[in-house]
Amino acid sequence: MASLEEAIGVKLFLRSGPRVRLTTRGAELSGLMSNSFDAIEKLIASWKDKESGRKPVLLSISSSMAAHWLIPRLFDFRLAFPDVDLRFELIAGGVGQSPVRADLGLRRFPETAKAPPESHFLDEIIQPVAALDYIKRMGTLDQPRRNRTHTLITLSAHWCDWDTFARLAGLELPPNHKTMVFSDYSVALQSALNGQGIVLGWLSVTSRLLRYRSLLAASDKGLNTRATFNFILGDQTPVGSIAGDVREWLCAEVGKDVAKIGKGGRLHSFECHVLVS
């Protein structure tokens, strides 16, 4: 590190005993070097892919969608795309409408924004969901068991908390309830799957869980925000690339979920009273 500083004539590190931290210019150089190393890594990976005949597709989705929606389908994906190496760029929070630097990315488009029609994955539909054993013990939000206190699982610093959902969907929350707060939606869903409470379920993530009854509707109330989730091709993705075929497969899979959910009955979601905000 000292040799590097001497060679360029700029102080890059601040030293305090055994601790070392970057200066402002050191942080700038670190970011540039990280991007360079990433570019080198991608280039070498592309060389290997060309030699092996594999077709890599980098997919940008939320960590919760990867864990609860896509990974359980990877066997089917490999049957459909035996020559494709699916790689992930995972987003810890909401996917938002940020640019897609991957080959293919799921992004949220508010009602006022337009997305290519062929990119549509699913409308943003939100509904309270819980595991069957929880509903057996505690009842639903519409029909709670007497002398039982519901636990509402929520995300910290998210635009749609329980109070907001209740106001928009016309749901009366139980006056006395406990709360569990998580910063990661994947963990919040896992808590609900473990029977620990009721969580707000985004259908774009929970469709498979509802289809196979791992989670059930915990209320007849639901909310369609008029926003949509869309799979957008990256700016550098060539027209006619395999990423387009992957997008069609992903959209077809969620379509199968929705078709099955619609036949499931009251506690299997979708035959709920969905309000449009």
From TrEMBL:
<protein>
    <submittedName>
        <fullName>Transcriptional regulator, LysR family</fullName>
    </submittedName>
</protein>
<dbReference type="GO" id="GO:0043565">
    <property type="term" value="F:sequence-specific DNA binding"/>
</dbReference>
<keyword id="KW-0238">DNA-binding</keyword>
<dbReference type="Pfam" id="PF03466">
    <property type="entry name" value="LysR_substrate"/>
</dbReference>
<dbReference type="InterPro" id="IPR005119">
    <property type="entry name" value="LysR_subst-bd"/>
</dbReference>
<dbReference type="InterPro" id="IPR058163">
    <property type="entry name" value="LysR-type_TF_proteobact-type"/>
</dbReference>
<keyword id="KW-0805">Transcription regulation</keyword>
<keyword id="KW-0804">Transcription</keyword>
<dbReference type="InterPro" id="IPR000847">
    <property type="entry name" value="LysR_HTH_N"/>
</dbReference>
<feature type="domain" description="HTH lysR-type">
    <location>
        <begin position="1"/>
        <end position="23"/>
    </location>
</feature>
<comment type="similarity">
    <text>Belongs to the LysR transcriptional regulatory family.</text>
</comment>
<dbReference type="InterPro" id="IPR036388">
    <property type="entry name" value="WH-like_DNA-bd_sf"/>
</dbReference>
<dbReference type="GO" id="GO:0006351">
    <property type="term" value="P:DNA-templated transcription"/>
</dbReference>
<dbReference type="GO" id="GO:0003700">
    <property type="term" value="F:DNA-binding transcription factor activity"/>
</dbReference>
